[in-house]
Specification:
The complex is a heterodimer of chains A (338) and B (157).
Chain A (H helix, E strand, L loop, with lengths): L1 E2 L3 E3 L5 E9 L14 E2 L10 H18 L10 E5 L6 H10 L3 E3 L6 H14 L5 E8 L1 H8 L15 E2 L2 E8 L6 E6 L14 H20 L8 E4 L3 H14 L9 E3 H4 L11 E2 L1 H17 L5 E9 L3 H5 L6 E9 L6
Parallel strand pairs in A: 3-4, 5-6, 5-7, 8-13, 11-12, 11-14
Antiparallel strand pairs in A: 1-2, 2-10, 3-9, 7-9, 10-15, 14-15
Helix pairs in contact in A: 1-2, 5-6
Chain B lengths: L8 H13 L5 H29 L8 H17 L3 H8 L1 H4 L2 H14 L5 H8 L5 H25 L2
Helix pairs in contact in B: 2-3, 3-6, 6-7
The chains are: A alpha/beta (338), B mainly alpha (157).
């Protein structure tokens, strides 16, 4: 049901019945290493290219999510996913392997919540019984497409972020046990004129703020409704700015209530500058760590707002600014846990 | 810069707000690190050149080429083992400006694009980063030579 202009309420309460998360060697040293289903020691995953390695991670994430429910691919109606690589080929090849009807989407790092919101909407409207929704990214594959060759010795500024190597996937169902998806707010493209691709956190904050504000306004609730408001990959600098601006906008959010996946995932010892980014960043933190917390009863309601910088190398070289987007999805504990 | 003109007041306000909060590059510290590491690389180069002059039949004039080749070879090993990019993060211009920086740009591109094959991958992309250095290096040398020729011919220097 549509409330306001851009928020969906899901009366059928689609359920996340299982998840799959895969990470690389760098993620094995992160703060959430216990929450992964598979951790790889080699960034190549024994594949010929980084793009194929990314595809392999996404395939594994989907297969794990299915295995946990003893389900097979042909029981799932749709696969909605995307990634950062040109023309989202790693996701497309994953869809080929899975053989599930496929909707490929691109919202850069906001893909996680875009696919989750769409999946929930389709299930809510009885368009499907089971949907696999997720996203993936690979540090080296992203680095070489957006920045420089991995072994090139350039000096990154302190605002730069480290692209996560991993894949996260959620199996969304009409019925079952697990956390439920209660609402979603679709964001607008917001561009504040920033153009430094080494400061994406700063560029994405206004998009996150806009979506969060819209969500509370249209649902007519206040921030105390949620135990956690989770942003995607604003990084340490972006998170600080977002916290300050949200409170300035009149949304009373407590310091511990606002969590940023990119700020939180890596330890202080890891050389990641301002934190993590990448399409998998929000997916692995949400589907791994945060849903585990929810299962343990530590959190009851959270609003996941993954943020995406929708630029390309071409648009940056042609002096364009960075257009940004954020989509919000609220996840709450299912009735079985209460 | 046409695309960035006419920013809305809201955007200008946000940019100013954002700029105050972003971590700045430690420019002075970076300069110091670049000076120390760059200087060390040049010192190593000088030692190698002296060795060539002392142990091999090279003169001060001819020792330059084998010295560059040796530095490039060392850079190749360091790049291949994934050490040079870490050094680059620490040293910045210190590892980018010497000939080793140029070598690293070529070698890292060659390694990176191996997955697209030898012709269209390595062949096409090897000079992707180093290309501009060659283009503008040759171009500025041409301009300087032109100025020199004009000054000598007509200036009577």
């Amino acid at each position: 049901m549509l409330v306001g202009k851009s928020t969906w309420l899901f009366q059928q309460k689609p359920v996340i019945i299982s998840t799959g998360t895969v990470g690389g060697p760098f993620e094995a040293q992160s703060t959430i290493y216990r929450d992964f289903d598979i951790l790889h020691e080699d960034i190549w995953l024994k594949q010929d290219s980084f793009e194929k390695a990314q595809q392999k991670m996404m395939e594994e994430a989907c297969q794990i999510a299915l295995q946990k429910q003893n389900m097979s691919e042909n029981q799932v109606e749709f696969f909605i996913s995307g990634d950062l690589i040109n023309q989202i080929t790693p996701t497309t090849f994953t869809a080929k392997t899975l053989g599930i009807p496929y909707l490929g989407i691109f919202s850069a790092c906001a893909t996680t919540t875009e696919s989750l919101a769409l999946s929930a909407m389709i299930i809510n409207q009885h368009g499907a019984n089971y949907i696999l929704s997720g996203s993936s990214s690979h540090n080296a594959a992203t680095e070489r497409q957006y920045r420089f060759p991995t072994e090139y010795g350039s000096q990154k500024p302190p605002t730069a972020q480290w692209t996560v190597t991993g894949a996260g996937c959620a199996l969304v169902a009409k019925q079952g046990t697990g956390p439920v998806i209660t609402s979603a707010t679709i964001g607008k493209v917001i561009d504040m004129g920033l153009s430094d691709p080494y400061n994406m956190g700063g560029a994405m904050v206004p998009a996150a703020i806009d979506t969060i504000k819209t969500h509370f306004k249209e649902r007519q609730i206040d921030p105390s409704y949620y135990d956690l408001i989770v942003t995607g990959d604003l990084g340490s600098i972006g998170r600080e700015i977002a916290f300050e601006l949200l409170n300035k906008e009149g949304l009373a959010i407590k310091e511990e209530q606002l969590l940023d996946c990119g700020d939180f995932i890596y330890t202080d010892d890891q050389p990641v500058h301002a934190g993590a980014s990448g399409a998998a960043c929000c997916a692995i933190v949400t589907y791994g760590h945060l849903l585990n917390l929810m299962q343990q009863g530590d959190i009851k309601r959270m609003l996941v707002v993954s943020t995406g910088a929708l630029h390309s190398t071409l648009s940056i070289q042609q002096n364009d600014t960075i257009p940004c987007i954020a989509h919000a999805v609220s996840i709450e504990v299912g009735s079985d846990v209460n | 810069m046409t695309n960035k003109e006419n920013l809305s007041p809201e955007a200008q306000e946000y940019q100013a707000f954002q700029q105050q909060r972003e971590t700045k590059r430690p420019v002075l510290l970076n300069c110091l690190k670049a000076f120390l590491v760059g200087g060390t690389i040049c010192c190593i180069g000088q030692v190698i050149a002296t060795l060539y002059i002392y142990f091999f039949p090279f003169t001060e004039r001819t020792a330059g080429n084998p010295t560059s080749a040796t530095i490039i070879f060392i850079t190749m090993i360091l790049t291949g083992f994934g050490i040079y990019d870490r050094l680059g993060q620490f040293a910045g211009a210190g590892t980018a400006v010497p000939v080793s920086g140029f070598a690293n740009a070529v070698i890292s591109s060659a390694i990176e694009h191996r997955t697209e094959g030898f012709i269209l991958g390595v062949g096409t992309n090897m000079l992707k980063l180093a290309g501009p250095v060659i283009v503008y290096g040759v171009f500025s040398a041409f301009i300087i030579a032109l100025i020199k020729t004009i000054l000598i011919t007509w200036g009577g220097f």
